[in-house]
Amino acid sequence: MRTTEQVLRDHLERRRCGDLEGDLRANYSDELVVLSKDGIYRGKDGIRKCAAILKKILPDATFDFDVVRAADEYGMLGWRGAGGNGSEACHGADSYVIRDGRIIAQTIQYEVWPEGSEG
Questions:
Q1: Which end of the chain has the least Cβ crowding within 10 Å, N or C?
Q2: Do residues 49 and 41 touch, judged by C-beta distance below 8 A?
Q3: How far apart are CA 119 and CA 69, in angstroms?
Q4: What is the pLDDT, as a whole number, of residue 115?
Q5: Rg (CA), the chain
Q6: b or e along 28-65 (b: 16 or more beta carbons within 10 Å of the residue's beta carbon)?
Q7: Are the C-beta atoms of 49 and 59 separated by less than 8 Å?
Q8: CA–CA separation, 56 vs 83, rounded Å?
Q9: Residues 59-70: tens digit of each pLDDT
Q10: What is the rounded (10 degree) CA torsion for 57, 110, 4, 49?
Q11: 93 vs 2, 22, 25, 39, 96, CA distance in Å?
């Protein structure tokens, strides 16, 4: 069984490579619950919707992961992103509950500044 940190690291690597579907297959539970500023999402389709929202805001984005923490079945990421349109996502913080090698719960929070804004 993979550890919480192994699941998080695999999740990050797949997202860096743009492999959303591989990430969903390898790392997410079908019973997933996601809480975000945009709403409550369930299952793998929920993550697809969250990813589509972020992609619309930050097209062709690159991401930096400043913090990766894992303890027992809990994980946390601190991140920021820059979109090809000049927008930036700052103060990104995702938290996770991981059981049996799968993400079963996730929270997502970030702030976005449009091109030319001070963040």
A1: N
A2: yes
A3: 24
A4: 63
A5: 14
A6: bbeebbbebeeeebebbebbebbeebbeebbeebebeb
A7: no
A8: 9
A9: 999 999 999 999
A10: -40
A11: 23, 22, 23, 16, 10
CB–CB of 91/66 below 8 Å? no
DSSP string, 37-86: TTEEEEHHHHHHHHHHHHHHHSTT-EEEEEEEEEETTEEEEEEEEE-TTS
| pLDDT attached to residue 114 | 74
**For 69-112, how does the pLDDT look when each residue is reduced to its tens digit (9 = 90+)?**
999 999 999 999 999 999 999 999 999 999 999 999 999 999 99
The β-bridge partners of 63 are 81
Architecture of the domain spanning 4-113: Roll (3.10)
**Tokens 């969903």 found at:** 24
Do 103 and 29 touch, CB atoms closer than 8 A?
Answer: yes
Domain parsing of the chain, residue ranges = 4-113
Measured between alpha carbons, how far is 117 from 22 in angstroms, rounded to an integer?
34
